[in-house]
């Protein structure tokens, strides 16, 4: 009996993916690592991968989408909602189909999320060069558009012989599943190589199990960390996405309760603690709570738990640069940020080890009491902003009031909704105001802040968590950039509730523009160049209905609340559009964010903004180097 099997490169690839199983180290039951493949076929993948996927469709489902970038967003969101324990692959044709994935690859790279990208590529043989959609580099005959993926992939390989899969695929899976390396993998697949056959070892396709293990810190790292915590009088934990992916909620809750240490969160980490925990301070930083930011300014030790310390978290390095940072992270690159102590390890494992090592130590009673008081104060602020009230006559609601109405529509017994969002003002408002009691109840893409992620991301979340209500909150700007996966959600029976806030332009950037002294220009429909027909009046509800959804436009908050109940009862994707005020935001909370202002300008407002900018820079320097 032969110990090999003759398969095409494409057949071998998908068979290998279908055989992979995964489980956590503390669990006994395994599950398929890959939940399926999103595919838009074209020349470059339809004959090779298309045929291979057809043969294995019962084991590895293939999903059709409407936009390459969007389907990659959906795959990435699936992995995020699965806490990086499951993932998907994405395949496209060569040329524009492939380059449409590059933005999504960068998004996954920044957010440390796994997705396997399988773009078609040009002929290795070069016999038909230049093939349709081929880029020709006049100085390098080996270049194709897929080389764009190199800087936005954790691992990149171009498969020019079928047998290269024997070492490329294990490397790819390692990058996708390793907690420190985790990110997008690109395997560029020349279309002639996809169709070539090779005698692969049968053992290569035996079911194999990926075990997600928690990296262990060294004893020396733990000892230094324990010393730093025991000496602290005002410690604060900043929990990031790594805490969620480590499933650290039980360990973090136990640590906070036992040792009296308050906790705040990043955009990626929001939800790791229930919103109503007495030591939960809310979010930190630029879009943070007044409670978290006040406590961080008073802290004498910041414990950065699974966070990459992005500028929105650190308020452009002004919020807690003055204090030591104890950074707990699986990724050494992230752990070294802040020039503090590094503990390389899984967030749940390390926080549990530290709690054991601290024994009966607790933060000073006065500090814990101060944090509890601040936390209660922020809960009161959120309740006041989001409570039901009637806006003044003729005044449009703003994002915070819309969030309150959406939140109130949730069954109080469960709080099991998942809210999905990405770019603009909404992430800032949601980070402050959305309440969730469950890890994963808040799904935000704010590492890359990619407009257009919202609806596609919501689709991926719903595919990962079909039992939960997935609410996509999106502005009109992002909706116009990417909305086609509404049709996919209807086709796949993956119901979404989409709440579209129409402020008639890019309201977020319009405010940022004016805050830096510039005049309103090219952001709102009213402030951009018009032709003779002026800006169109867009009927978003009619557009969503044309894609198969149920949709309506509501006039006010009361109508929104009623529409939310209809949406929850609906049997398919339901869009609700409401007009909102682009000038208003939540005043409470927040911190400085560095946006460079022109050093030279003819405008007084810009010069004044530049003076304020320089003052803030000097303040940061003084705070970093106290006398």
TrEMBL record:
Q: What is its EC number?
A: 3.7.1.22
Q: What domain of life?
A: Bacteria
Annotated signal sequence is: none
The coiled-coil segments of this chain are none
Name the top EC class: hydrolase
Keywords tagged on the record:
Hydrolase, Thiamine pyrophosphate
User: What is a GO molecular function of this protein?
Assistant: 3D-(3,5/4)-trihydroxycyclohexane-1,2-dione hydrolase activity
**InterPro entries from the xrefs?**
DHS-like_NAD/FAD-binding_dom, Myo_inos_IolD, THDP-binding, Thiamin_PyroP_enz_cen_dom, Thiamin_PyroP_enz_TPP-bd_dom, TPP-bd_CS, TPP_enz, TPP_enzyme_TPP-bd
Q: Quick check: keyword Cytoplasm in the entry?
A: no
User: The Thiamine pyrophosphate enzyme N-terminal TPP-binding domain covers which part of the protein?
Assistant: 48-134
Name all Thiamine pyrophosphate enzyme TPP-binding domain ranges: 423-576
Q: Which Pfam families match?
A: TPP_enzyme_C (PF02775), TPP_enzyme_M (PF00205), TPP_enzyme_N (PF02776)
Q: Does the keyword Hydrolase apply?
A: yes
Query: What family does the Swiss-Prot or TrEMBL record give for this protein?
Result: Belongs to the TPP enzyme family.
Q: Which PANTHER family match?
A: 3D-(3,5_4)-TRIHYDROXYCYCLOHEXANE-1,2-DIONE HYDROLASE, THIAMINE PYROPHOSPHATE ENZYMES
Q: What is this protein called?
A: 3D-(3,5/4)-trihydroxycyclohexane-1,2-dione acylhydrolase (Decyclizing)
Instruction: Look up and give the organism this protein is from.
Output: Luteibacter flocculans
What is this protein's gene name? iolD
């Amino acid at each position: 009996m032969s110990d090999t099997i003759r398969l095409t490169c494409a057949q071998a690839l998908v068979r290998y993916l279908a055989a992979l199983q995964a489980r956590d180290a503390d669990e006994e039951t395994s599950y398929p690592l890959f939940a399926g493949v999103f595919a838009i076929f074209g020349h470059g993948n339809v004959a090779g991968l298309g045929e291979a996927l057809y043969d294995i469709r019962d084991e590895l489902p293939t999903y059709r989408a409407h936009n390459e970038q969007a389907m990659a967003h959906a795959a990435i969101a699936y992995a995020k909602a699965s806490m990086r324990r499951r993932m998907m692959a994405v395949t496209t044709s060569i040329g524009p189909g492939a380059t449409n994935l590059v933005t999504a690859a960068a998004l996954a790279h920044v957010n440390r999320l796994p997705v396997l990208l399988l773009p078609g590529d040009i002929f290795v043989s070069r016999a038909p060069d230049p093939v349709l959609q081929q880029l020709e580099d006049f100085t390098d005959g080996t270049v194709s558009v897929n080389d764009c993926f190199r800087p936005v992939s954790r691992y990149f390989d171009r498969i020019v012989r079928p047998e290269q899969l024997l070492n490329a695929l294990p490397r790819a899976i390692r990058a996708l599943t390793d907690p420190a390396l985790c990110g997008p993998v690109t395997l560029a697949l020349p279309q002639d190589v996809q169709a070539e056959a090779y005698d692969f070892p049968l053992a290569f396709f035996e079911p194999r199990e990926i075990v997600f293990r928690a990296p262990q810190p060294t004893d020396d790292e733990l000892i230094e960390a324990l010393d730093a915590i025991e000496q602290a009088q005002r410690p604060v934990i900043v929990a990031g996405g790594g805490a969620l992916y480590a499933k650290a909620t039980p360990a973090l809750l136990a640590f906070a309760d036992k040792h009296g240490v308050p906790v705040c969160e990043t955009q990626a980490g929001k939800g790791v603690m229930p919103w109503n925990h007495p030591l939960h301070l809310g979010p930190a930083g630029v879009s943070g709570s007044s409670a978290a930011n006040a406590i961080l300014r008073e802290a004498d030790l910041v414990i950065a738990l699974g966070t990459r310390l992005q500028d929105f978290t650190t308020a452009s390095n002004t919020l807690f640069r003055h204090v030591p940072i104890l950074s707990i992270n699986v990724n050494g690159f992230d752990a070294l940020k802040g020039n503090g102590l590094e503990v390389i390890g899984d967030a749940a494992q390390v926080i549990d080890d530290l709690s054991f090592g601290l024994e009966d130590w607790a933060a000073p009673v006065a500090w814990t009491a101060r944090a509890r008081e601040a936390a209660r104060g922020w809960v009161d602020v959120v309740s006041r902003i989001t409570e039901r009230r009637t806006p003044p006559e003729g005044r449009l609601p703003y994002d915070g009031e819309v969030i309150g109405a959406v939140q109130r529509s949730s069954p109080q017994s469960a709080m099991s909704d998942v809210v999905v969002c990405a770019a603009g003002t909404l992430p800032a408002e949601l980070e402050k105001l959305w309440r969730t009691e469950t890890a994963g109840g808040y799904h935000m893409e704010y590492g890359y802040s990619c407009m257009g992620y919202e609806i596609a991301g919501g689709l991926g979340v719903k595919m990962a968590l079909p039992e939960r209500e997935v609410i996509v909150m999106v502005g009109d700007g992002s909706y116009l950039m990417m909305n086609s996966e509404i049709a996919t959600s209807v086709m796949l029976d993956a119901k979404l509730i989409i709440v579209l806030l129409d402020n008639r332009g890019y309201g977020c950037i319009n405010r940022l523009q004016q805050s830096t002294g510039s005049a309103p220009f090219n952001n709102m429909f009213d402030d951009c160049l018009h032709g003779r027909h002026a800006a169109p009046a867009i009927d978003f509800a009619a557009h969503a209905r044309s894609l198969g959804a149920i949709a309506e436009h509501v006039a006010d908050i009361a109508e929104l609340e009623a529409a939310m109940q209809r949406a929850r009862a609906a049997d398919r994707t339901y869009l609700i559009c409401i007009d909102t005020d682009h000038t208003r935001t939540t005043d409470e909370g927040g911190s400085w964010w560095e946006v460079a202002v022109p050093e030279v300008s003819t405008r007084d407002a810009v010069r004044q903004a530049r003076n304020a900018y320089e003052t803030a820079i000097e303040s940061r320097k003084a705070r970093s180097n106290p006398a």
